[in-house]
Give the backbone structure.
Amino acid sequence: MSLSTAASSSLPGPHAYPLLIKQLLHTPLAVRPEQEIVCGEAVRFDYRTLQARIGQLAGLLTSLGVKHGDTVAVMDWDSNRYLESYFAVPMIGAVLMMVNVRLAPEQIAYTLNHSGARVLLANREFLTVLEGIDEQLPDLRTRILLDDADGPLPTGFAAEYEAGLREATPITHFPDFDENTRATTFYTTGTTGLPKGVYFSHRQLVLHSLAGMAALGSAASQGRLHRDDVYMPITPMFHVHAWGLPYVATLMGLKQVYPGRYLPGRLLELIAREKVTFSHCVPTILHMLLDHPAAAQTDLRGWKVVIGGAALPRALAQRALACGIDIFGGYGMSETCPLLTLAQIDAEAVAGSDEALSLRTKAGIPVPLVDLRIVDEAMNDVAHDGVATGEVVVRAPWLTEGYLHDPDASAALWAGGYLHTGDIGNIDAGGYLRVTDRIKDVIKTGGEWISSLALEDIIAMHPAVSEVAVIGVSDAKWGERPLPLVVTHANSAVTEAEIIELVAARSRSGDISRYAIPDRVSFVEAIERTSVGKINKKKLRSLHDQGVANNAR
């Protein structure tokens, strides 16, 4: 061996730089360390403090015996503590499990046990729930209290969060490890069976963050997220990482505002006080905010809001635009981390036109690295003409590999090498996806498939209609018939005949099949929803479909 060869072999090689969640902190700490993290009325600190608190939480967890591969669960409202756990838990090689606090107690117990959680960070508000299921949690060895008031430490809790952080020896150096290490787990809230666990690696979350930042930041104006924006999630942090946007906001060094519980008055106050410019939510939440009395006195101009979790109704989009809100749709699901598409538009080219409204209410165009197809039952692509429909199937480097401890369901999810969303949709010539229904919710009547979402969109345009859900109910002659369930605005009225004629008029103009014209309409006080605000059509069918009810008996 020559001297030069020997010398060169002893030199360190290039750093592999695994894609780990800790890497998302480098840029904000380098260029925006003074930027603020705000939680409610009492908490306000900068990114340097965020880094220190992440190190303290990591030190606290390590001192309590948390090791690489252990699962740490969190039960909290949207808070700076949740953001800290988004980083500290996976940065020590543990798995962050986000508990859906809106599930029934027995489902919470199931998800904690199924995920293998050994440590739980729990807000004092949920102590009653935990006491009721305590005997069902034999493997949960350590509890840490998240307390907004200085109350006593409950029996069985090892520490209070803030006191524990103060006493912990902080971790200041987080080692590299395999970027494919599992980082997070949470549970889907489907309407059938037990919740299913989905999981994501460090690599997947970093790539999802980069793609989300690229998609949102590449827009010329409409729907653009930039470093001077103020971010506030209105999608729970326990649900699909709040759509991954806290990671994006941190990577970009944005001012971040965390509202705690979603109380309409508080949300509007925070938007005004902290000058929030970017949020995301399901249609129900925005509807709730715009209906609140304080909305009329709150300047919402320039507030950018991505709507997901359900289709964006045209009526809601029109109402939001009238308030100066830059509203647009997005699409994804728990299994996709979730971001797949965004309905950003060339605002100048289609300003004020019906085309602009139509594009905003679509699911949108794929974000970078997403391979999205509309296929028939044989996995053949259908035409991109805005008419031909098929199932939405996808590939992207951040999609879940499967369901935790459920190989059969995982195989079905990935049949044919693409992730099957269970959604039906079409793609237009411009590449915009419109989701027309869930496969399980589409209504077959008179030999035709009727989109419940299209029918809802038409009915929601009536000024007296506050909310609407359309379900298929059993019919001896037609197999199924559409039944609109309508909630009216306070002090507003609309008749069954008016709703039917509204649909019939759109049928006569060719916008919808004549088979979609309902025979009857049911007026209801409220519409059943899942724990994350989606319309629960399975529950609605069980309540309103007499044929199903008869069969059940």
